[in-house]
Amino acid sequence: MTRTVVVTGSTSGIGLAIATAFAAKGENVVINGFGSADEIGTIKSGLEAAGGKVIHHPADMTKPDEIADLIATAASTFGGVDVLVNNAGIQHVEKIEDFPVDKWDQIIAINLSSSFHTMRAAIPLMKEKKHGRIINIASAHALVASPFKSAYVAAKHGVLGLTKTAALEVAEFGITVNAICPGYVLTPLVARQIPDTAKARGMTEEQVKSEVLLKAQPTREFVKAEEIAALSLYLASDDARQVTGTHVSIDGGWTAA
């Protein structure tokens, strides 16, 4: 049976890799994110060429009403929501005392609260079918902290708590809720924070890559977005039906120490 998969923040980076993996399995995919009409059209064409039926919804992840409409549109178009992947996220790097309040609010809204709003809308649909998969893309920063990332670390820790709570609530409805905790992936999000981190730490950008980012990962390699996508496919599968309420780290050994 063809499933319907909603992936937030999926017009680039990890989210696009996840959307591509599900499309290649022939699933219906609802992508979400910003981009020009031409850019979105190109992404949709690529996903459809991979094998799936695709629609794009432009919901702003800071706006609960638009998030609710994202889930409602997925359901009205394809008949439900079978897999929800909460991937949308942003970053800002700054000392706590200088951290802009509007940036704090925006990061908490997009990186944490949006997952609550999508789940709030999607869980009733999954309960009706007595089946569903929810995958929250957290971070190694859901488990450990780094300086100058107070909002991001707080939000990702919150995602783990939300994941566990939701898993307990839906455990008897055939729905699983899990979090993936990636280490550093060289996505546009990470690439954009390198200059800011360099400024905050008084380093060159190359030093940030080698001495800050990859220093955290014993393998000294970036995680690939496609590897996170493969893990998402597993967590969405029947083989993972008893995996729920937990996190899976894919961080090159970062959190082993």
Question: What does this entry look like structurally?
Answer:
The chain is an alpha/beta fold and 257 residues long. It has one domain: Rossmann fold. Strands 3-2-1-4-5-6-7 form a 7-stranded parallel beta sheet, with helices on both faces. It is globular and about 55 Å long. It contains 8 helices and 7 strands; from the N terminus they run βαβαβαβαβαβαααβ. The chain has helices at residues 13-24, 37-50, 64-78, 101-129, 150-170, 188-201, 205-213, 225-235, and strands at residues 4-7, 28-32, 54-57, 83-86, 132-137, 175-182, 247-250. The N and C termini lie far apart (42 Å).
Secondary structure elements and their pairing?
Blueprint lengths: L3 E4 L5 H12 L3 E5 L4 H14 L3 E4 L6 H15 L4 E4 L14 H29 L2 E6 L12 H21 L4 E8 L5 H14 L3 H9 L11 H11 L11 E4 L7
Parallel strand pairs: 1-2, 1-4, 2-3, 4-5, 5-6, 6-7
CATH architecture field: 3-Layer(aba) Sandwich
Estimate the helix proportion, in percent. Answer: 40-55%
DSSP strand tally = 7
* Strand fraction: 5-15%
Number of domains: 1
Tell me, briefly, the overall form.
globular
Largest sheet: 7 strands, parallel
Order of helices and strands: EHEHEHEHEHEHHHE
Please give the CATH class: Alpha Beta
Q: Termini distance? A: 42 Å
List low-pLDDT spans: none
Q: CATH H-level name... which superfamily?
A: NAD(P)-binding Rossmann-like Domain
What class, by secondary structure content? alpha/beta
Integer average pLDDT = 96
Strand order of the largest sheet: 3-2-1-4-5-6-7
Family: Belongs to the short-chain dehydrogenases/reductases (SDR) family.
Pfam family, one: adh_short_C2
GO molecular function: 3-hydroxybutyrate dehydrogenase activity
GO biological process, one term: monocarboxylic acid metabolic process
